[in-house]
Amino acid sequence: MTHHSHPHGQAPHDHAPTRDHDHASTHDHDHDRDHDQAEILDLDADVLAEHLASIAAWLPVTTAPRHIVDLGCGTGAGTLALLERFPDAQVTAVDSSAAHLRRLVEKARAGGVEGRVHTVQDDLDTSRLDLDRPDLGRPDLVWASASLHHLADPRRTLRQVHEALVPGGLLAVVELAGFPRFLPADAPEDRPGLEERCHAASERRHGNHLPHRGADWGPLLTAAGFDVEAERTLTVNIEASPSNAVGRYALSSLRRVRAAVTDTLSPEDLAALDRLLDTTGAHGILHRPDLAVRTRRTVWAARRT
Questions:
Q1: Alpha-carbon distance 277 to 155, whole Å?
Q2: pLDDT at 29 over 90
Q3: CB 276 within 8 A of CB 283
């Protein structure tokens, strides 16, 4: 499963501790970051549930999988969609964030599927994947949504997945075209185009950390030994609903963007962004009737032959 915004706990830290006595504040920072990411992931799952279900339904499976691995599962949007799509399957959910995994288990328990989920806390960049669980067997479907582009060496992980899958097994890679947009191009009225400038500033700061964001994964999958069977791009355009989930999603997302662009945005743009993020002000983003979620997601279905 959040990235926009480093959704699955694989992103490098923006601020590393420099002294031993910073440990407590660093722990609090990590806790807050995980909480913020979990909130965005949950909102993403809520707003984009229909699109996620359509991707799961589209997967070219030849036989219903029994063991699924969700790599970089976040708070469980993909895991729960796959459990719904394949009612006889068990899912091993892998993520580096213990907080995300706890949230996944809570949601699985609430949905009555806790017994079908096994969680594994692991950093895909620093360890060798051990996907062959004795109680589940080798996976016949691996799902990686918005997680591979966070890895320092995704080629290594793709080779490990290819090795772990059963012959004929499927890998589904879902990636974002970029961070979702929420505002019209001419908004806000006092600083038109603000959102695009914010994202451009964020890209300049984080571009070197995420060199694989926006990559064409087809050639990488082929190089790892997979046969790419299908590719599909979904264009997402979801207008705000009475529940205001889109507004809350926009607020949480742009708060994360603001933290990344504080030092690079112009004072005028920063002030305009703060007005949008003001939940009490009349011009805050929660009060805008013109919000929508606009993004694209591409999925590659690759088989181990």
A1: 39
A2: no
A3: yes
pLDDT at 208 over 70: no
Tokens 């719904």 sit on residue: 84
Domains present along the chain, CATH in parentheses: 20-179+211-238+294-304 (3.40.50.150)
Asked if residues 236 and 51 have their Cβ atoms less than 8 Å apart, the reply is yes
CB distance 77 to 1 below 8 Å: yes
Give the separation between CA 247 and CA 171, rounded to whole angstroms.
Answer: 33
pTM of the model: 0.84
Q: What's the pLDDT at 93?
A: 95
Separation of alpha carbons 138 and 131, rounded Å: 7
Between CA 188 and CA 190 the distance in angstroms is 6
What secondary structure, in 3-state letters, does the chain show? CCCCCCCCCCCCCCCCCCCHHHHHHHHHHHHHHHHHHHHHHHHHHHHCHHHHHHHHHHCCCCCCCCEEEEECCCCCHHHHHHHHHCCCCEEEEEECCHHHHHHHHHHHHHCCCHHHEEEEECCCCCCCCCCCECCCECCCEEEEECCHHHCCCHHHHHHHHHHHCCCCCEEEEEEECCCCECCCCCCCCCCCCHHHHHHHHHHHHHCCCCCCCCCCHHHHHHHCCEEEEEEEEEEEEEECCCCCHHHHHHHHHHHHHHHHHCCCCCHHHHHHHHHHHCCCCCCCHHHCCCCEEEEEEEEEEEEEC
Cα–Cα dist 42/2, whole Å: 9
- Judge contact between 151 and 79, C-beta under 8 A: no
